[in-house]
Specification:
Number of strands: 0
Largest sheet: none
Strand content: under 5%
Order of helices and strands: HH
Amino acid sequence: MLPLAKNALSRLGVRSIQQTMARQNHPKRAPDFHDKYGNAVLASGATFRVAVWAYTATQIGIEWNLSPVCKVTPKEWREQ
């Protein structure tokens, strides 16, 4: 059974490499949607996401628990 499985796997690997090479050798006839608009869609999506997070971080009043260092002064100690 081992030689049969080995033979099947070797044929699968060669076939997929040949198919990949055949796909790369055929040029596209016309640019598709991703070629035309891919970078613009990516940039606009990234800009929108940054804008939404900037709004969320600054406008909805989240308490960010910033460090109290140099903001809190200790009270004087009172002896009783």
